Amino acid sequence: MCFIDHDEQPDMDDAKGVFAHFMVGNTYPYVLRDWTEDIELAILHHLDGFVLNIGSEDWQKDRVADCFQATEAPGSSSFKLFFSFDMSVIPCKTQGDMQHLLEYIKRWGNHPSMYRQNGKVLVSTFSGENSLFGFGDMGAAWNFVKKSLEEIVPICFMPSFFIDPARYDSLHFMDGAFNWNGGWPLHLSSGMPRQALESCKLDTDDHHLRCLGGRSFMAAISPWFFTHYGPDTWNKNWIYRGDDWLFVRRWEQLIAARDRIDIVQIISWNDYGESHYIGPIKGAQPNSQAWVDGFDHLPWLKLAGYFARAFKEGVYPRIEEDQIYMWARPHPKDAEAVDDKVPRPRNWELTDDTYWVVVLAKAPGTLVLSDGEEGSRTIQVPAGVTKASHPLESSKGMEARLYRGGDMIASCKPSGFCFNPYPPVYNFNAFVVVATS
């Protein structure tokens, strides 16, 4: 099946922002050069900044200091940063625990690279609905935190609280919200019909927007989700369905709705443990090497650059080179791992043994898909963005070729990929590649 992006383009409006969620907790070995390289790479792909996920460790302040210093390099002054305080790990039992947040704003709140929304320093969170700081309820707690932060700089507070958005109306300290879970179809179950899985909606933003009453809104987008930790570590072992060109479908949705969205936050730049990283594999992995090493996702960063421009500019950019993107899991979903102490991830039934293809074509052409040996199919593609797919076969590969006027314009056949029916460990991460003309 082949789908084409619509000809209708959204209207231009005020400036929009596209940021990538960045796990500072994975940067223990980083030095200034690492930050400089990451920032240059992000700018090259039209990202506006990083959302720095801040944990509880004191050493993270030193890494953040290097990050802010890297933004002062020539060519990087337009790159912005803001904090997402990770309230799943930051202590929050007493009023004194709020000092951890306060230290970051005291040190960097007035830095020129700090991102401002509506003229105020943007501050976000991951979770926090149970962070009471010694108060009796969440409202009193975060009202206290925001007022304390505003003694330093004006704050635009856009948290990601995992609560019913219907409560937003009573939470006057919120200047907006971030819908963290909006990037994945979380409402699916193994008992759903196949048609329902394939047509799954990503529409939870609507409820948040209705309840915000015109306050700012930050939308989430993510290309994938797989985590595989046993009960002896973080006890996280599940997938969300990333099929059906999730990354591209979500971009198209956000571009169409850009008049209601202030910021898009990509989850993530470097969260290797959840397999949705689009940046380089570097730094310190959180014991995720078994499903991350060898699975480069930089092609997703290149793809994100095209759609980030469309979101910010209000018009899809002209395609200057033919591009073929492909991604797939490395083994059948029901394969038995040869040597894995952690079971097959929860929700494994919700995915398909399929490889996913996105073509950015300068002009009409012919796309040929195969498993690298036989079973090919031919699709006529127009100029623009085309989404296609092909079944994966055990012990075989994946291949896509683009032809125009009888000539092969681009070919994508990763030599390092084989759909392995006997994997040593369970790995529902994505193998991602790109080929250009």
Explain briefly what this protein structure is:
With 437 residues, the protein is an alpha/beta fold.
Note the overall shape: globular
Task: Extract low-pLDDT stretches.
Answer: 1-14
- How many domains is the backbone divided into? 2
Query: What's the average pLDDT?
Result: 94
Oligomer: single chain
> What do we call the CATH homologous superfamily of the largest domain?
Glycosidases
Q: How much β-strand is present in the residues?
A: 15-25%
CATH class of the largest domain, named: Alpha Beta
Q: Provide the succession of SSEs.
A: EEHEHEHEEHEEHHEEEHEHHEEEEEEEE
Report the strand count.
Answer: 20
CATH architecture assignment of the largest domain = Alpha-Beta Barrel
Reported by name, the CATH topology of the largest domain is: TIM Barrel
Q: What distance separates the N and C termini?
A: 23 Å
Q: What gyration radius follows from the Cα positions, in whole Å?
A: 22 Å
Classify the helix fraction into a percent range: 10-25%
What class would the helix/strand composition place it in? alpha/beta
Q: How large is the count of helical segments?
A: 9
Largest β-sheet summary: 9 strands, mixed
